[in-house]
Structures are given as C-alpha cells and as structure tokens.
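Priority: medium. Attachment 1 of 2:
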C-alpha cells in the first residue's frame, strides 16, 4: 500500500470561501473606517493622558486582544472551510490475491432428472466450504449453456443455485433455465459437456488453479462432437483437474469405469454420489492445490481525515472565547 497524502474531495470550496472571506473583510474594513471618520473629534491636551503608563498598558492589551480575536477568527473560519472541503487521506493499494477457479458442470439429461435437484444441493454445500474462489455453473444436455460465469459474488452464486433448484424441481416459472441445452444431436452428450466446461475458464488468466466438479451418470444418448476421453485430454492440456460425481453408480459398470479413468487422468478424483466423503474430499482436494499469487489492479482508497481542521477550529474557538472576555485592568 502506497500513501499519497492529504487530498480534498471538493477543493473548489477553498477558492470560493477565500473570495467570500476577502469580500466580507473588505466590507467590514470600509464600514469601520467610515464609522471612525464620523466619530473622530479633536481633544485638547490629550498627550498627558496617552503618556500615562496605565493608558499605554491598556492600549497594548487592547491591541493584543484584537490581534488574538482576528487570528482566532481567521483560524476558525479557515478550519471550517477546509472541513467543508472534506479532507481525505488517499492511499493507493496494490492487492495480491491467492485464489482458485471452480466450474460446476451439471448433466441435466433425462437420465439425471431424479438426481439433479440433489446435485444442486450438493453444489450449494460445496460453495459454503469455499471463500474467495471464483465459481461458475455450466449445464448440458445435447448442448451446453452457461448459467453464470466465474464470479466471487457468493450472494449471486447462491441465488442462482436456488433458481436452479426450483427449475430442476419442476417449477414452470423457471423453464428458461434450460435454454440453450437442446441444440445438439441426441441427448446427454457427456464429452461435449465436459469440453465446454473445461473451455469456460478465462483464456487470458492461465495462472489460476482450475477445477471442474463434473456431475453426470455418463450415459451417452447421441453423437457427441468430442468423446469423453478426448475431453479429458483437453482438461489435462489446459491444466484443469476434474472431480467426478456419479449419482447412478451401482457397481463397476462400463460407464462408471470410463468416467473414473478420465477424471483420475486429470489428477482429479472420482466419487459415487452415495459416498459420504465426496463433498469433503472434493473440497480438500481443491484447497490442496496451491493458490497462485495474482496481482490485482491498483485502486485508490479515500478515507475522511478531519483531524487537522477540527484541531485548528478548536484552537480558534478557544482564542475567540478567551479574547472576547474583558481583560482585567
């Protein structure tokens, strides 16, 4: 963090205030001069009076008092003007963050209909375990659609997952949730879905640790453009780890074996959804990846700093009060 010093939110007030103060001072001076000219009168034999020590002492104290009054008034008025201009303490912060990116990838094909609402609940539980990671959601059937891109706005993420729960629970008000997922040939094109999820990370930000939580039963019903093993190779090439969640595994079936081989080939891990350790295992595995130190954009921070004008105003006020009292003779 770099300190840049004192600044003012409304510096123009100082110029305006200074002009007003000069105008008021000039008007007061002219008024006093006219009054003094009208009240002036010659007094004979006044030298004897003005030569008295008591008179000289009183005159000296009067001049001191007037000087203190003038200086205190200027100090109080100037401090009030600076305070009105809002003094700010300005610092420039160059934050560095350590973070990871996590893409939630959900198969919403017909064979997954009985499990998707539960999987979204699992995703919400995963989100609660993270702090600072960017999270996105992609759903797929015959084609893939991004529900929300990578973001670290956790309130927004939870709201979107709540909407996903309602849509996958059959709420007709959320039918638009499925838009963009029926544009391919067939249904449940698993490889295409994983490839889309892997390609959804920022292409310009390759420093972040990146993971995909891939929820599917791996039951293909159509002609994918990219096979699952090819999508796994794409993930490895991009340095993306895939963590598989299979809600329908009842044994070592071919689909489960293939899915396990693909995700473990990316240095990820495979879990049947019935595995009670799945959530903690995914969280621990993701957090075990070293979060890369990333320089964020510099930003200026402004903090109100009225200490100086308040202190000067206090001094001026004390001077005015003290000088306004009658001086003892």
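Attachment 2 of 2:
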């Amino acid at each position: 963090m770099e300190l840049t010093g004192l600044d003012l939110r409304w510096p123009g007030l100082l110029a305006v205030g200074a002009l007003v103060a000069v105008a008021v001072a000039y008007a007061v001076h002219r008024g006093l001069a006219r009054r003094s000219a009208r009240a002036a009168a010659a007094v004979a034999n006044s030298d004897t009076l003005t030569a008295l020590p008591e008179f000289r002492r009183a005159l000296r104290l009067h001049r001191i008092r007037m000087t203190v009054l003038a200086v205190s008034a200027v100090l109080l008025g100037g401090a009030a003007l600076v305070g009105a201009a809002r003094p700010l303490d300005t610092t420039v912060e160059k934050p560095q963050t350590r973070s990871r990116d996590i893409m939630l990838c959900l198969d919403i094909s017909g064979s997954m209909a009985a499990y998707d609402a539960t999987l979204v609940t699992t995703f919400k539980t995963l989100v609660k375990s993270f702090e600072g990671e960017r999270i996105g959601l992609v759903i797929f059937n015959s084609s893939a659609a991004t529900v929300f891109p990578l973001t670290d706005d956790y309130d927004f993420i939870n709201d979107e997952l709540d909407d996903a729960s309602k849509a996958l629970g059959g709420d007709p008000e959320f039918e638009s949730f499925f838009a963009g997922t029926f544009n391919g040939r067939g249904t449940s094109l698993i490889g295409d879905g994983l490839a889309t999820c892997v390609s959804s990370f920022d292409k310009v930000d390759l420093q972040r640790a990146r993971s995909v939580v891939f929820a599917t039963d791996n039951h293909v019903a159509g002609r994918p453009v990219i096979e699952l093993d090819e999508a796994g190779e794409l993930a490895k090439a991009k340095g993306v780890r895939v963590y598989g969640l299979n809600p329908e595994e009842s044994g070592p079936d071919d689909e489960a074996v293939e899915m396990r081989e693909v995700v473990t080939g990316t240095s990820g891990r495979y879990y049947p959804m019935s595995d009670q350790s799945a959530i903690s295992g995914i969280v621990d595995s993701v957090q075990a990846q070293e979060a890369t130190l990333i320089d964020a954009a510099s930003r200026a921070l402004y903090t109100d700093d009225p200490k100086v004008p308040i202190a000067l105003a206090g001094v001026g006020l004390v001077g005015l009060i003290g000088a306004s009292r009658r001086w003892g003779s």
